[in-house]
Amino acid sequence: EDELKGGHKQWYQRRVRGAHGTVTTCHSRTPDLGYHIRQADVVVVAAGKKELVKGDMIKPGAVVIDCGINPEPDATKKSGVKLWGDVEYGAAKEVAGYITPVPGGVGPMTVALLMRNTVTSAKRMNGISTPHKPIRSYSTMTAGVPFSPSARNFSTAASLGLRALRFLKK
Question: How many C-beta atoms lie closer than 10 Å to residue 145's C-beta?
């Protein structure tokens, strides 16, 4: 079931339509998921399923933002855990124009923006003006759901991914 309900979905679709874009919302059980992903110029994946999106599902030259973090025990790692994304990185990087890695993709941007918002909040609490408008919220994506219930949170996740892409090269 679509997690962007009622007003949130309409708000986000109106916002994207104003930018001449079409939003397609899918989840892990969408029939023929690959078909929908192959149509996209920008793919934001946050399904909570290891390597759900395969390389052959990606449109050549597409921007792929992988927000998934799927830990798996790995005795060869110092931490004892290996992190996997929701995108099959090895195959997808051969097709995509840009792709965020896991780990090291949107995570550092999330931390940086959370820190910025913490400083902004502290300044506001102490009556100090701030030069920018902070991003209001960001929440963890849940398994099987492409984005969180709030369109604002999805917009934030997409923004984080696009900011991370500034530092990446194919």
Answer: 16
Q: Is 140 left (phi over 0), alpha (psi -120 to 50) or beta?
A: beta
Strand order in the sheet with 42-45: 42-45, 63-66, 98-99
* Tokens linked to 116: 């910025």
Q: Please return the burial class of 108, using the count of CB atoms within 10 Å of its CB with bins 0-12, 13-18 and 19+.
A: middle
Contact between 106 and 147 under an 8 Å Cβ cutoff? The reply is no
Closest CA to 28 of 140, 139, 147, 138: 147
Q: What is the mean pLDDT, run by run of 10 residues, along the chain of 170 residues?
A: 49 59 85 94 91 95 92 94 95 94 87 86 82 48 34 49 48
Q: Give buried/exposed letters for 7-18 (b at 16+ CB in 10 A, else e).
A: ebbeebbeeeee
Instruction: Note the pLDDT tens digit of each residue in 139-169.
Output: 333 333 333 334 444 445 555 555 555 444 4
